[in-house]
Design a protein that fits this description.
Layout: H1 13-26, E1 31-37, E2 43-48, H2 55-61, H3 88-94, E3 97-103, E4 110-116, E5 119-126, E6 131-137, H4 144-147, H5 153-170, E7 175-180, E8 183-188, H6 194-201, E9 209-216, E10 219-226, E11 235-240, E12 243-245, H7 248-258, E13 269-275, E14 281-282, E15 293-294, H8 297-316, H9 328-333, E16 397-402, E17 406-411, E18 414-419, H10 420-438, H11 456-460
Parallel strand pairs: 1-7, 11-13
Antiparallel strand pairs: 1-2, 2-6, 3-4, 3-6, 4-5, 7-8, 9-10, 10-13, 11-12, 14-15, 16-17, 17-18
Helix pairs in contact: 1-5, 5-6, 7-8
Length: about 450
């Protein structure tokens, strides 16, 4: 019994939602309906069309440490089911008013079992289609110390909604419905396209959903990447062997890739699927099975990182080369490879008028640069020497401008590159802050109203 003891699997209403959904999935359900009241504090009801249970098995399922999902201790080394400890139902029944209604064969009839605070109050025959319904009311009604630490209904609802999201993303072939009171929050029809399931759950996606994958060392990693609006932190869902989990190793691999400037990952939605042999991952390291431990953590980290880098590259698309500029002295040194791709008649960058005269090299820097053979040993064109000057900006001594976008400066530590556009935005930001501090900032009504779509948790907040 000690080998399958689950500890406290019920921390909040979302824990009950997660455990009951996993039982439904193990029962091979193809439709799962979840109903909540007061964020799950008053009611959690999960109904499925799975295999159901015989009356005797239903009574055994309410016993501590009872399970039908493993037959020997060796099975713990390669867990293939989602729930296996047989601890969720009795743990929920001990701190709530629970009703279990199940039927394996509708012709023979089902059974309804009523439990309050861990005590079975009644067992009676009941009619029900094949499947199981579990109703959990007044969670922690008999443990006021634990009920006191439950959050507001809106917060508990958000956690429960995230639990349903994870299960629905991991199993797009199963239909999921989540209702809170009279509102339907999630209605995801079964599909064979995980990208479509992501759109069903995250209705605000506007751009394409990119799929990426990588297979190496017996580890299969694939995922979905939906670009965001460029602002905010990426939203990440991790699924290992069909089980939504939290794992610092995988989160670190994702952050390492998405944290690189220029990836455009702000506000992106990422769903990461990792499939490893059952004997190489331990799902029994956390009481609620929310965390896992890998036997080959380093190799999995590397595969996840490569897969996500490929996904980010695919989401950014390919940039075609429209023109190749070749300096005259390079062209005269010998023939090179012919440029390929479309060549457009665009203004060469060098023909743009500079923002200001060159402060470091003088006017002679604007003249064509001579071939390297005529350069001095110091690496500068002959006849052009750098002028010594004191710092003339808060960032150091101004050297020049690169591609009409970056300012090049020099301080005591070396080269300083300033993005002109970002600097301009910072100046405007400081002006706005100054106006807000001293006077009413100028405002203007929109010509057309802007429609902003929010999910249920954001509306409540």
């Amino acid at each position: 019994m000690n080998r399958i003891a689950a500890g406290e699997v019920v921390e909040r209403p979302s824990s009950a939602v997660k455990e009951l959904i996993e039982n439904s999935l193990d029962a091979e359900a193809r439709r799962i309906d979840i109903e909540l009241a007061a964020g799950g504090r008053s009611l959690v009801r999960v109904a499925d069309d799975g295999g159901g249970m015989e009356p005797d098995d239903a009574l055994l399922a309410l016993e501590r440490h009872a399970t039908s999902k493993i037959t020997s201790a060796a099975d713990l080394e390669h867990i293939a089911s989602f729930g296996f400890r047989g601890e969720a139902l009795p743990a929920m029944a001990a701190v709530s008013r629970l009703v279990l209604l199940t039927a394996a064969n509708p012709v023979e009839g089902g059974v309804r079992i009523t439990v309050e605070g861990g005590r079975i109050l009644g067992v009676e025959p009941a009619a029900r289609p094949r499947g199981t319904t579990v109703e959990v009311r007044d969670l922690f009604f008999n443990t006021p110390a634990r009920r006191k630490f439950l959050r507001a209904p809106e917060t508990e609802l958000r956690h429960a909604q995230e639990a349903v999201w994870g299960a629905a993303l991991a199993h797009p072939e199963v239909e999921f419905t989540l209702r809170h009171g009279s509102r339907t929050l999630i209605e995801a029809a079964p599909t064979t396209d995980p990208g479509q399931r992501l759109r069903d759950l995250w209705g605000r996606l506007e751009g394409p959903v990119h799929r990426f994958e990588e297979l190496a060392s017996g580890v299969e990693v694939w995922g979905l990447l939906a670009a965001g609006g460029g602002a905010g932190k990426p939203t990440l869902t991790l699924i290992v062997n069909g089980r939504p989990v939290r794992d610092r190793l995988l989160v670190g691999a994702v952050r390492r890739v998405l944290g690189v400037p220029g990836t455009g990952a702000g506000g992106a939605r990422v769903v990461l699927f990792v499939t490893v042999p059952a004997d190489e991952v331990d799902v029994n390291v956390h009481p609620t099975k929310a965390e896992v431990r890998f036997a080959r953590a380093g190799s999995i980290f590397a595969v996840v990182e490569r897969a996500l880098r490929a996904g980010v590259a695919a989401s950014q698309g390919h940039v075609g080369v429209r023109r190749v500029e070749t300096p005259q002295w390079v062209a005269e040194s010998g023939p090179g490879p012919e440029p390929t791709g479309e060549v457009a008649a665009i203004e060469p960058p060098g023909s743009r008028r500079p923002l200001f005269s060159h402060p470091a090299w003088g006017e002679e820097a604007a003249e064509p640069v001579a071939p390297p053979a005529t350069w001095r040993a110091g690496g500068h064109p002959a006849g052009a020497g750098a002028r010594a000057a004191a710092p003339d900006t808060p960032f150091g001594r101004l050297i020049g401008q690169y591609r009409s976008s970056f300012l090049l400066l020099e301080d005591d530590w070396g080269l300083v590159i300033v993005d002109q556009h970002v600097a301009h935005e910072r100046v405007l930001f400081d002006r706005i802050r100054g106006r807000l501090a001293g006077e009413t900032a100028p405002s203007q009504r929109l010509l057309e109203p802007l429609l902003c779509e929010l999910d249920e948790a954001a509306v409540d907040a």
